[in-house]
Every structure is written in structure tokens, then in C-alpha cells.
Amino acid sequence: MDEKLPDEAERIARKVARAGIAVARRHVFLCADRENPKCADADRALQAWMHLKDGLRKRGLSEEGGVLRTRVGCLRICEGGPIAVVYPEGIWYRACDPDVLDRIMDEHLVGGRPVEEFVIARRRLPDDEG
Ligand code: FES
Predict the structure, then answer these.
(1) Model pTM?
(2) Distance from the CA of 2 to the center of ligand 1, in angstroms?
(3) Please, what is the Cα angle at 51 between 45 and 53, to 5 degrees?
(4) On the CB side of 108, how many CA atoms lie within 13 Å of its CA?
(5) Tens digits of per-residue pLDDT, 37-60?
(6) For the chain, which domains are there?
(7) Cα distance between residue 105 and residue 100, in whole Å
(8) Pocket mutation for ligand 1, best pick of 29, 30, 31, 120 (most atoms within 8 Å of C-beta)
């Protein structure tokens, strides 16, 4: 008989490990709705998302590199996008086209310094544990 297939909990655990959640230091959310983003046109938003994914990978920041990324449908700013937010600092950015994303990756994610000229808000979320 074939080996038993992994159950859902095992499959999820593998995906959690593969995503790098255990070593995550930051999480980037980028507004790139698939059909009708309001903060930038759909092609521009898709280009930004692809650039972020490739850029994180090329810099060794994906998965074991400690930076999670998530494409979202709307971050509720809906103006001047593509909009992104980086946690845990809670730094919100406007105009996240490839050139700006390169700066965010190099200066903020690697260098630890937000790219001030594109920051539109900042709010570190409170840590209830401490
Ligand atoms: S559609 Fe991008 S923030 Fe709302």
C-alpha cells in the first residue's frame, strides 16, 4: 500500500516552514488588486508586485531571508499608489513603483532606514506582550 498522504495539518506546517514565518523580521503588504485597484492602474500595480517579489528574491530576503510579502486588494488609502506598508515598524509608502521599491528594499529592509520622501504615515502597532 502507498505511504499515507500527509494530512492537512502537516501540509500547512510544511507551508508555514517554507514561507519563512519562523525567521520573519518584516512583512511587506503591497496594494495590487488583480482587477480594479483604485490607487494605481492594474498594470502598474502588477508590475510593482512582480518587481517586489523578484527584488526580495534577488536580495536573498525571501523565505529564509526574513521578509514576508503579501499582495492585498486594498490598503484603504486609494490614492497615490501603489501603496505599501512595512511591519513591524508600520511605515506606509506611496508611489511604490519599481524604482521606489528598490530603494525600500535596499534602504529600509536591508539598511533599516525608511525612505522618508515616500513615507505617508507611520504607526508601529502596540505589542500587547510587552
Ligand atoms: S486600492 Fe490601493 S489602497 Fe485602496
Answers:
(1) 0.91
(2) 48
(3) 105
(4) 27
(5) 899 999 999 999 999 999 999 999
(6) 25-122 (3.40.30.10)
(7) 9
(8) 31
